Amino acid sequence: MSRPTQPTNQRLSPVREPIIRIAQVFKQYRVGRRDITALNGVSLTIDRGEWVSIVGPSGCGKSTLLNLLSGIDAPDSGTVDVAGQRLNGLSEDRLAAWRGREVGIVFQFFQLMPTLTILENIVLPMDLARNGSNRRVRALALLEHMGVAELANNLPSELSGGEQQRAAIARALANHPQLLLADEPTGNLDSHNGKIVVELLRDLWNAGTTIIMVTHDPGVATQASRVVSMRDGEIVDDIAHIEQGACIHSRSMLLG
Ligand SMILES: Nc1ncnc2c1ncn2[C@@H]1O[C@H](COP(=O)(O)OP(=O)(O)OP(=O)(O)O)[C@@H](O)[C@H]1O
Ligand SMILES: [Mg+2]
Questions:
Q1: 205 in a structural domain
Q2: Number of independent structural domains in the chain
Q3: Ligand 1 centroid, distance to 225 Cα (angstroms)
């Protein structure tokens, strides 16, 4: 079966509807007596249906940015609006409920619960969100879609890295999120399993999910519909693929 290997514009709707809008975001960390600036006045708008790669050298603020979008971390100043919610000032409880409903998160090191089976790992976020009644059936269907259903009753340690990441993507999709955030989803996989994960992301994107993905891998980054480059806590470039094989510089998108 052949699948497209180049980005296409089929998910880029002519009607732009922001799902993410962050404005003038600053974030510092105190390390000993030094303040490290992780984000230095970042503004970014991402529309529903985009697949955005975030790239840049180690330490430039990619994970910090992703953590602000999921509400795992909060900015020192600036506003963060994601999936219809202003995240600034939300209580931990309300953040957790919002995150469980609206956002799926995929990590570089999978972060499956080691003492739960793969199936239980997928059911857990549905239980936490009290979402649906046939949770095990839905979990199995998701694992089926990811090609790892036969491993449903195994523990994560009994799976390969690629299988664990596919299970982790199933977990991220448990509550039908409109937004998928992935930090180096292929960073710990060999190239074969990396390709499988990228194709699964492409399927999700084609089905309407908005995806924001941090990656070091240029070959993975350019699969997305837009590539945002960071350096020293700032966005320094922003390129949208508007049609197959063609790109435009769209720095102005940052201001829109
Ligand atoms: N919890 C923290 N405490 C202190 N400093 C932090 C913390 N998190 C991030 N930093 C610092 O903030 C800066 C940005 O870190 P971040 O993790 O966002 O970078 P990154 O672009 O994701 O890097 P990498 O590609 O290595 O994952 C770095 O200088 C980092 O050391
Ligand atoms: Mg990082």
A1: yes
A2: 1
A3: 25
